[in-house]
Amino acid sequence: MQMDFRDPMAVCNYRVFLSFRGPDTRHNLVEYLYDKLRRLGIVAFLDREEIQYGECIGSKIKEAIKRSDICVPIFSQDFASSPACLMEVTQMVESHKEIHPIFFFVEPCDVRHQRGTYGKSFAKHKSKNSYPESTIKKWEDSLNEIAHKKGLEFKKAALEAALKDGLEASLGENGVIKGPEFKKAALEAAVGGIKGRFYDDLFGGFRELEDFISELWKLLKMDEQGLAKNLVGTERDVPEMMRKLGFDYQNGQIVKERKMTVTARWVLVVWGLPGVGKTTLAKEVYSKIRHLFEGCSFLENVRDNFEQKRVVSLQKKLIRELKRGECPEVESFTEGTTVIKHLFQKNRVLIVLDDVDDFEQIEPLAKELTWFGPGSTIILTTTKEDVYKVRKSEEQDIFYEHEHEVKLMDEKHAFELFRECAFGKNDLPKDHEKMSKEIISAVDYLPFAIDFVGRSLYGESEKEWERTLGELKAKLIDKVKKMLLANYELLSYEAKQVFLDIACFFTGIEKTMPCHMWAARGLGRGVEELKKKSFLKIKEEKEFWMQGQLILLGREIVEEENHDNPRKRSRLWDYKDVQKILREKKGIYKVISLRVASNFKRIDGEAFRHLSNLRFLELDKVDIEGNPENILPNLEWLDWCGCQEKSKLFAFDMEDLVILNLCSSSVQLSLKDWEQLMEKAQSLKVLNLKDCTWINASLNSLLQGI
User: Fold this and answer.
1) Which of 98, 182, 366, 601 has a CA that sits 20 to 30 A from residue 219's CA?
2) Virtual CA dihedral for 446, 451, 456, 460, nearest 10 degrees?
3) Cβ of 309: how many Cβ atoms within 10 Å?
4) Regions of the chain short of the pLDDT cut 70
5) CB distance 662 to 634 below 8 Å
């Protein structure tokens, strides 16, 4: 059974408050309007109980008005006969709410000056002496103020066409059946309240009403509250996020509110790769549950605001949104923290802190869950899984802390998102299907990139599609690069160096050997930082995995160290760049990591004289010409698959060597050679001799003594 959010005991927020005189409008305009708003996802307050003449509006109604974003009084002929209705509009004015009136077959000037039926109603109120003059004066002033506002006017002439069309559509062939009794029966069946076709056809055909509803949608910025277009694939994450927040969520709706103990509070950390869709999901969940809280705030780009020293502005926005427009004076970081800490301890609030990178950014806004009342919920979006840790102040407090990793889209959803962005409601041309799949593969199923590229290709020629695909395979698009680069800049020096190494050389490589090299350089903590910030994953076989767009980012960062001169870059792996520096032999190169592919066959040993800064060297079945000696004094990792001559092996300076990989090599070493090698490489941690069938049995005894 679906939960009734109009439960008088429930404290909720509403987007729209509807004020009306029941007998005039409840079973026609009001129910149509309420149903229309509900279908659009706009939560409106509709009081189901008729307040009798002479009754005062209760605290429930006052709270509903205060907690509504927009108030819509529907002025009908008998509206002013109800003191409760007059009290409601007075409460709207006194609460400084945004008010959009509807004049239902009454003139605004009659409402403004209390003429016609409004004059008669006020005369009756005054004659009964049931209310003091000051109260009646407030009613008059409130009507005067609201009726000056531009509102939707229902006029007889404007409705005649809609009425005619609605009546004909509702009666259909029954309307021409002979005999008045048949026509009357058909009319009654057709009208049938809001559930009949008559009112639906009538009000649906009244263009001004549809424009009024559209304007409410725009004013409420519903398209910015997680209800945007192209929400593809959210059915995978939203139900799970709802479950972790304690809600029973089925078929896109909350069907049962979470069980709540007296002191329970919730935290949900939504984390994952940059651009994977964390903010979109947070907005979607926020829009579906915000009306269940006394105060709500969605703070976007917290990290950026923090870096720009706009913390006080963030605090003011948080206070203003939770207080629904009210904000005390806040002049400093410390003052803002104090206000937040003490102002909302009894309020059930929903707060989303979007894009946080460190707990330091959370502290001035929501350091302790006990700053907020029972039932409060904080949702964080971040690239770090452990960005928030619950601080428990009292043993009796109950906290529910969950994390939710947002993963990359699968191919089906990625293709669906791209199709919607690139073609809208149009059908996908068959000759574009293959290229579409190549594009989403080129951006590695990253939703941010799919959305951007799809929109940029909307309506473009096939030639432009082909050009874009070629570029995507070679480099990052600027908007994606900017977003990823901003996250890269937040890494520590150690993590940046490890990131660039993996992006350029070690994706798909088992982690043991690289980790030994980084430990020797003092970069050992870099891997853990990259994992925590979603830049890196360790797969089942303990190999490194990095998302394709991040690999491109790392390589572009290195290439931009010096576009024109590869000698001045830190890492080289591309055949053309490596070929260029091995031929030039000029000065000392800045290169610290170098891959020489099997395309080279052999290289001149003298080239290494210019590579004295090398820490990592990979030679793939490459021979060294000449008779070099004591080359590469800073080398930490020599990866020489297919080494053949021991004289060339011993030409390397091995004082700092930590890793020696000689897999699939044919070089033969005697026991004395091994002793010499171990003497030279006293820092050696890893020796890989896989597929080296020549190994002398004496090597085993030597290794036992190391």
Assistant:
1) 366
2) 100
3) 9
4) 1-12, 48-57, 156-202, 204-206, 221-233, 255-263, 325-326, 390-397, 425, 694-706
5) no
